[in-house]
Amino acid sequence: MSETPSSNDPGQAGFCRVNTVARLEVPAGESLLEWLRDTADCVDVRKGCDTGHCGACAVLVDGVPVKSCSVLAQEAGARDVHTLAGLSLLDQPATQAVLAAAEQRQPFQCGYCMPAFMLAAIALLQDTPDPTDAQIRDAFAGLLCRCTGYLPIVDMVGLAARLLRGASPGGEGRTA
Amino acid sequence: MNYAGMPGWLRRACSGRVFTEDIYPEGCLHAAFVRSPHAHARIAGIRTPVEGMDGVVAVWTADDLPGHPRPIPCIIPLLNRDRSSRADPPRTLLARGKVRHHGEAVAMVVARSARIAQAAARRVEVVYEPLPQVTQADLALQPGAPRVWEDIPGNLCFDWETGDEAAVDAALQAAASVVEASIVNNRVVASPLETRSAIGWADPDTGQRILVTPSQGAHWTRDVIARDVLGWDPATLEVITPRVGGSFGMKIFIYPEQVLVLLAAQALGHAVKWVGSRTEAFLSDTHGRDHHTRVRLALDAAGNFLAIRTDTDANLGAFLSNYGPFNPTMCSTPVLPGAYRFGAMYSRVRGALTNTVPLDSYRGAGRPEANYVLERVIDIAALELNLDRAALRRRNLLAPEDLPYTTATGVRLTGGLFADNLERALRSIDYAGFPARRDESRAGNKLRGLGIANYLETNGGMALARLTQPDGISRESARICFHRDGRLRADVGTQSSGQGHRSSYAKILADYLHYDASAISVHQGRTDRLGQGMGTGGSKSLLSGSTALLQVADAVIQKAREWAAQAWRMPLEQVRWEAGRLRGGERCFSLRELAIMAVADLPEGTPHPFETEVCAAITEGTFANGCHACEIEIDPDTGVVDILAYVSVNDFGVIVSEDKVRSQVMGGSAQGIGQALLEDCRFDADSGRLLTTDFGRYHLPQAASIPDMDIVLNQGSAGANRLGIKGCGESGASAAPPAVMNAIQDALSTALGKRASAIQMPATPPAIWALLHAEGSGA
Question: pTM higher than 0.90, yes or no?
Answer without folding.
Answer: yes
